[in-house]
Design brief:
Order of helices and strands: HHHEEHHHHHEEEEEH
Number of helices: 9
Strand content: 5-15%
Oligomer: single chain
Strand order of the largest sheet: 3-4-5-6-7
Low-confidence stretches: 3-17, 85-108
Number of strands: 7
Helix content: 40-55%
Structural class: alpha+beta
Radius of gyration: 19 Å
Distance between the termini: 52 Å
Mean pLDDT: 80
Largest sheet: 5 strands, antiparallel
Length: 259
């Protein structure tokens, strides 16, 4: 019995240490994100550098769940199961329109690495765009922060970058960005990221998969509810249950007050 208590205590200590280390990583990543915004020189897009980081992440081999963990809900307590036996590195290639594969299971959410790894990857993606290597850590501030606060802080910056990226594609029609997202499966992934932000803001589950079926982008949440988008007369619309247009994406991002 004494040995059992020792084992349980040791396990609990390890879990606590692991949670504290992860919190440190989320905090540090938030600092990198803030620096990516503050060092921006683009007067048109206040999240310009961060917008580029988001674009790069969406176009690479990260799954929708992995992108949510990186940009939307780093504090999530949902069960995340590591897919063992893979050494994929998401930084090495972009997603071709016929190569997008989302991992989907009814039992759990599957990721390829430890949660810690995804916070480090966000910093890697920021470094690749900005050249930044270090961010200042305020230990007093860190100790005061909760994971819920750090998640909200993350969304404040990354959510704005996602909205501005969509705005640049469909409203200001930036030719470079429009070309990057010219294949609808890639745009569907970006829409999945946008709806994750919107859902979390509205206290709804985030998106776990984004797939294109017969020209329709189908976004599925953790509770398996669906949201659909498709092009209607060259505009992207959210669809009603009967497949007709409900609301233009243009109006959603223009009037959606995320914060």
């Amino acid at each position: 019995m004494k040995l059992l208590r020792i084992v349980i205590s040791f396990t609990l200590v390890n879990i606590l240490v692991s949670e504290l280390v992860y919190k440190d990583e989320v905090y540090l990543t938030n600092k990198y994100i803030q620096l990516a915004v503050s060092c921006n020189q683009d007067v048109m897009y206040r999240s310009g550098h961060l917008m580029t980081v988001v674009k790069n992440i969406v176009l690479k081999q990260y799954t929708i769940v992995e992108m949510a963990l990186m940009l939307v809900v780093p504090e999530t307590q949902e069960v995340l199961v590591i897919k063992h036996g893979t050494q994929e590195h998401a930084s090495t290639s972009s997603v071709a329109s016929n190569e997008i594969v989302e991992i989907e299971t009814n039992e759990a959410l599957v990721i390829k690495h430890e949660k810690l790894w995804y916070q480090q990857r966000v910093r890697y993606e920021i470094n690749a765009v900005t050249g930044m290597r270090r961010a200042f850590v305020d230990k007093v501030e860190l100790d005061r922060c909760t994971m819920e606060y750090l998640g909200s802080e993350r969304r404040y910056f990354t959510g704005a970058a996602v909205i501005q990226l969509i705005h640049a594609i469909i409203i200001t029609k930036n030719p470079v960005l429009r070309s990057a997202f010219s294949d609808f499966p890639q745009m569907c992934r970006l829409l999945g990221l946008y709806r994750s932000f919107k859902n979390v803001f509205e206290k709804l589950p985030f998106i776990k998969s984004a797939k294109v079926h017969d020209g329709t982008c189908v976004l599925k949440t953790l509770d398996n509810s669906e949201t659909k988008y498709r092009y209607i007369n060259e505009d992207i619309w959210e669809l009603k249950a009967n497949g007709t247009g409900l609301q233009r994406l243009y109006h959603q991002i223009e009037f959606f007050n995320m914060f």
